[in-house]
Design a protein that fits this description.
By secondary structure, the chain is an alpha/beta fold. It contains 15 helices and 20 strands. Strand 6, helix 4 and strand 7 form a beta-alpha-beta unit. Bound molecules: ligand BES, magnesium ion and zinc ion.
Length: about 500
Amino acid sequence: MKINITEKNLVQPGALVVFGFVENEEAKLSETAAKIDKKTGGALSKATSLGEYKGKFGQMIEILAPNGIKASRVLIVGLGKGYEISEKQAEQIGGKIINKLIYSGEESVSIAAGEHAAHVGFGVLLRQYKFDKYYTTEKNIKRPTVQTVNVMTSDIDKSKKEFSILEKIADGVIMARDLVSEPGNILYPESYAQQITELEKLGIEVEVLNEDAMEELGMESILGVGQGSSSETLMVIMKWPGSKNKNEAPVALVGKGVTFDTGGISLKPGAGMEDMKFDMGGSAAVVGAMKAIAGRKAKANVIGVVGLVENMPSGTAQRPGDVVSSMSGQTIEVINTDAEGRLVLADCLWYTQDKYKPKFMIDLATLTGAMLVALGQDYAGIFSNDDDLCNQLIKAGDAVDEPVWRMPIGDGYDKLINSDIADMKNVGGRYAGSITAAQFLQRFVNDTPWVHIDIAGTAWKQKASDVAEKGATGYGVRLLDRLIKDNYED
Ligand code: BES
Ligand code: MG
Ligand code: ZN
């Protein structure tokens, strides 16, 4: 779909979208809508005076084949009280519009947007995404008819500039969604690393550590997870040297990339196991964020590190009770092979702080089912040793509508992962499963400021939202990009 930021032109064919609002509890038309109303002999005001439409936020009314204008239909969209909306709301409106019209038969849509035109266009881009590449026969799927969306504004220079950046962020979100949506037979460590290597086109340096290299570094923890799989375990490092000062300590993003999580010998139940293709959602957020950051040429040094591995049961798989070492030298008793994400991140985190001495590390992972129990699908949980960083993340999350909620950590929880025969075990008890997972990670961050984001609930949604089809959300890309934009650029 092509999105153009254009000047106002009300004589276009296709669908024309105009806005209404509420004033004194009555439905009103925007200036542009009022113009169209005149041209159509009052068709719009007649429609808005009928039925349920009141101009409430997101309310819509559609007028087909109106007289007096070129457009084949007019969609009136309510903006709520007073016509003033936020950037976030502009994105929601863009999403609602394209969701309404995408299969309408129209090829082009023209939206008479105002000052937030770029964000309306961004919402359109995010909501139009569908993962439909595996449908081969037309009868299985409705194909979108809309090819072009013209977002019209009088503030064209500013909006174009703004949109050119948002478009790069959308590229990152969409890459993350694509990665998360791909099934495990298509996306496995080698094919995943291949896709990441493509980012070199954007000026990102990509380095791949194979099993030999990781063995050399003592990374028994991540290697143990992949031991039962016929795919090679890989760690991929992405570097974006965007700051003027190339020696400035980087920001580090770390992601769990379990391309499929069967649970290993501690096998998961069959029902719903197919969902575990999304167990690389944390790494996808990191890869997508790197793409966005490089795409918009962010002035910051950023490192992305992802651990790519498949967790399979087999004759070579790790056993419950096995003791492994790690790059940090600490030993781990693997009580449950399904608690594999923390084993992957342990070596990723240690390696990242050891090698790159970053300002801070943020890891993202679909780490625990307990996260869904605690927070559901709206908020991701954050766990951290740094209050300032948490507050920056909370702000960024609110701004881009990828909200985070801080969870506690502490010594009492940390004790729960002490082991009788090794430095720690990879599961706590029955309670506080997301927190004991975070405590485990904290043992591998050294003194580095760090936040862990558990995205088990937010990486994948059963229901569509205003800005995403159901399925992969790309959660985290916008959050990380915004955190860097607001706090860590030259
Ligand atoms: N990938 C899962 C966590 C998960 C579960 C994410 C459901 C999203 C939805 C993780 O590897 C896992 O299996 N964790 C276990 C840990 C437990 C064994 C301590 C879990 O949450 O059950
Ligand atoms: Mg698991
Ligand atoms: Zn997992």
